[in-house]
Amino acid sequence: MGCYLTVDYVDKTIQAVSGNRCKIGLEYAEKEIFNPERTLTTTVKVKHGHLPLVSVRTDKPIPKNRIFDAMDLLAKVEVEAPVKIGEPIVQNIFDTGVNVVATKNVTKKD
Fold first, then answer.
1. DSSP secondary structure of the chain
2. Which residues, at least 6 apart from 71, have a Cβ–Cβ distance to it below 8 Å?
3. pLDDT interval class at 66 (50, 70, 90)
4. What is the largest CA-CA distance in the chain?
5. Which phi and psi (to 5°) does residue 48 adopt?
6. Buried b (16+ CB within 10 A) or exposed e, 42-62
7. Is-above-0.85 flag for pTM?
8. Structural contact between residues 33 and 14, judged by C-beta atoms closer than 8 angstroms
9. 69-104, pLDDT tens digit by residue?
């Protein structure tokens, strides 16, 4: 049995949070209902690398409603090898203050 929450709210004010032994609670419920965020992980193309793709992720969560926009943008991105872990691939994506960074090293092809 997984964790689930039941949230009663009126006019963006949460009245009650209940669930099946779920310890997440009010703060999580407020964030998930009114300002949900997610961390994005995907890949981008690499030119002249020993691998054709490099894995990337956001360094902080971004608004949930921007995830598909971010994926569409990143599908068009191509970086030049070498790529280092932590290297910014896209900075300040959609003016959110969130960067997309490499999570793997890719060396240049000989």
1. ----EEEEEETTEEEEEEESS---HHHHHHHHHHS-EE--EEEEEEESBSSSEEEEEESS-EEGGGHHHHHHHHHT-EEESPB-TT-EEESSGGGSS--EEESS-BPBP-
2. 40, 42
3. very high
4. 62
5. 60, 30
6. bbbebeebeeeebebebbebb
7. no
8. yes
9. 999 999 999 999 999 999 999 999 999 999 999 999
In this prediction, residue 77 carries a pLDDT of 97
Cross-strand bridge partners of residue 35 = none
| 23, amino acid identity | K
Place of tokens 């000989």: 110
Closest of 107, 70, 65 to residue 92, by C-alpha? 70
In angstroms, rounded to a whole number, what is the distance separating the alpha carbons of residues 5 and 24? Answer: 8
What Å distances lie between residue 5 and 25, 42, 65, 72, CA to CA?
Answer: 8, 29, 21, 31
